[in-house]
């Protein structure tokens, strides 16, 4: 009996070992707001994307958003281990995931092995989804502390089988507040946030506390809304804040009391408890095991110095699947963007014979000519003209594909039609579809200022001017905002600025 037991245990261990060593099978789950890529079984993947939809519904309820869902769903990649995360982008040690938004694509990447899928281990993803959500549906002149504080506040949501609990403290942030000296409240409220070290940790912790303090009380929430409205109008930040909350030092003392007395949380029903979200799941080709994350890296953009290695790896892996359309399209993208553009065009032409309305293939075919134009020393206009032919086809295939619109606008820069209402509408549509992409907002605001549409430009620049993530962007956007408020089509000299300030200053 004992021998049978040991033989059974050995067989079980071998089966587990074989399962762990077997190639991962990538699957894609698609819902109303997300496209989730993972290597779990279908049931687990459905559970994971349903949780993300519940989180999205929670954010909508909390912020009062009733707008239709964005046609651009957020891709989320669940990777296994730091090695897979590094395949997309080397973010250094101890990074559990990241979010990126560029004019070629937007996505979030999360290392499942950095923690389990329990909600307390998903703070990175929830934090970044909150940023993505707010830029999509509620972009305005939020100060830097609220941009981060709100994301910290909602990321601690706890998911039970039928309910969501929110308002829980972040254990890490609360512990930090309890063992360190706080930064001056005035610095948190009105200065640029520190970028690293203990001061950055204090900024996040205190920003979370202030957001919690504001959002847990209806009266304070109403005052906060009035404060934001004042910032939108261009009022000086400190004066606007004190008009609602009184002296800053007294406000700081109230925060300290609030932190000591304990915090409440709220329970609400999960949206999926009433109606399960619609989810479509597909299994990706075997070639995705080696190529999916490299394809994702190309979608969101890579550093110039990383291009040769990525191209070599894609060429080597795609060679294993010479008749697989998926492998060939990834190879076509790599050749077009980083290798032999003519070879890439030939591959794309072959793929388009059986997929004539594939927006990604059409877009890449246009990108071949855009890259030719960028490399042209003489006259880039013919290359841009050729690109537009493909971008028109891509737009007909998918009117919501914002990279197509962005690059179409670029192709007009050498054309007399660039400074036109038509170009402005193209650029604005791209920005509307992907307001998370700073480049699109800056380009749209610049064109609007050029055409004298100053108020429209202000609306786009307000969230950029208070961005906590990019100080250079915030300064540039602040300068453009002053220009728009000064109703000037040319940049204002430093000594000729209107008296108004933005929340980022």
What does this structure look like?
The structure is a single chain. The chain is of the alpha+beta class. It has a domain at 169-264. It has 23 helices and nine strands. It has helices at residues 2-21, 42-63, 82-88, 123-137, 144-155, 171-179, 185-190, 197-215, 218-232, 237-245, 248-261, 271-274, 288-300, 307-318, 325-338, 341-352, 359-375, 381-397, 402-411, 421-433, 438-450, 454-465, 471-485, and strands at 27-30, 34-38, 74-79, 97-102, 105-111, 158-159, 163-166, 266-269, 280-283. The strands form two sheets. Strands 4-5-3-2-1-9 form a six-stranded mixed sheet, sandwiched between helices. The longest helix is centred in the first third of the chain and has 22 residues, at 42-63. Residues 474-505 are annotated as: Disordered.
Short description:
The protein has helices at residues 2-21, 42-63, 82-88, 123-137, 144-155, 171-179, 185-190, 197-215, 218-232, 237-245, 248-261, 271-274, 288-300, 307-318, 325-338, 341-352, 359-375, 381-397, 402-411, 421-433, 438-450, 454-465, 471-485; strands at 27-30, 34-38, 74-79, 97-102, 105-111, 158-159, 163-166, 266-269, 280-283.
């Amino acid at each position: 009996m004992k021998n049978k037991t040991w033989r059974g245990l050995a067989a079980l261990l071998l089966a587990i070992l074989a399962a762990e060593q077997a190639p991962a099978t990538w699957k894609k789950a698609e819902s109303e707001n997300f496209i989730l890529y993972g290597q779990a079984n279908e049931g687990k993947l459905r559970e994971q994307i349903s949780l993300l939809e519940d989180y999205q519904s929670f954010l909508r309820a909390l912020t009062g958003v009733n707008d239709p869902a964005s046609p651009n769903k957020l891709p989320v990649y669940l990777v296994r281990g730091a090695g897979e995360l590094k395949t997309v982008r080397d973010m250094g040690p101890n990074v559990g995931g990241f979010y990126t938004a560029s004019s070629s694509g937007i996505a979030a990447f999360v290392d499942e092995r950095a923690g389990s899928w329990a909600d307390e281990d998903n703070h990175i993803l929830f934090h970044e989804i909150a940023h993505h959500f707010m830029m999509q549906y509620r972009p305005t002149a939020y100060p830097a502390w609220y941009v981060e504080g709100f994301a910290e506040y909602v990321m601690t949501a706890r998911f039970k089988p039928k309910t969501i609990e929110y308002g829980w403290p972040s254990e890490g942030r609360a512990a930090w507040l309890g063992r360190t000296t706080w930064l001056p409240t005035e610095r948190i409220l009105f200065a640029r946030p520190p970028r690293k070290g203990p001061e950055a940790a204090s900024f996040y912790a205190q920003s979370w506390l202030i957001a919690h303090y504001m959002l847990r009380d209806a009266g304070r929430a109403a005052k906060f809304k009035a404060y934001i409205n004042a910032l939108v109008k261009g009022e000086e930040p400190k004066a606007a804040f004190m008009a609602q909350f009184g002296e800053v030092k007294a406000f700081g003392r109230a925060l300290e009391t609030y932190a000591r007395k304990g915090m409440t949380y709220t329970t609400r029903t999960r949206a999926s408890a009433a109606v399960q979200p619609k989810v479509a799941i597909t299994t990706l080709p075997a070639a995705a095991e080696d190529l999916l994350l490299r394809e994702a890296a190309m979608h969101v953009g890579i550093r110039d110095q990383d291009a040769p290695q990525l191209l070599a790896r894609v060429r080597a892996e795609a060679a294993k699947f010479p008749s697989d359309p998926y492998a060939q399209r990834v190879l076509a993208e790599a050749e077009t963007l980083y290798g032999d553009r003519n070879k890439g065009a030939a591959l794309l032409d072959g793929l388009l014979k059986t997929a004539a309305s594939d927006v990604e293939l059409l877009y890449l075919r246009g990108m071949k000519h855009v890259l030719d134009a960028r490399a042209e020393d003489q006259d880039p206009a013919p290359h841009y003209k050729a690109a537009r032919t493909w971008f028109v086809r891509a737009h007909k295939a998918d009117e919501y594909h914002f990279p197509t619109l962005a690059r179409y606008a670029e192709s007009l820069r050498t054309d007399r039609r660039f400074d036109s209402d038509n170009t402005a509408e193209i650029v604005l549509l791209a920005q509307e579809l992907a307001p998370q992409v700073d480049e699109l907002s800056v380009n749209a605001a610049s064109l609007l200022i050029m055409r004298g549409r100053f108020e429209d430009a202000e609306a786009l620049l307000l969230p950029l001017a208070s961005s906590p993530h990019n100080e250079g962007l915030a300064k540039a956007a602040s300068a453009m905002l002053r220009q728009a408020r000064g109703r000037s089509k040319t940049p204002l000299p430093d000594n000729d600025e209107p008296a108004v300030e933005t929340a980022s200053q």
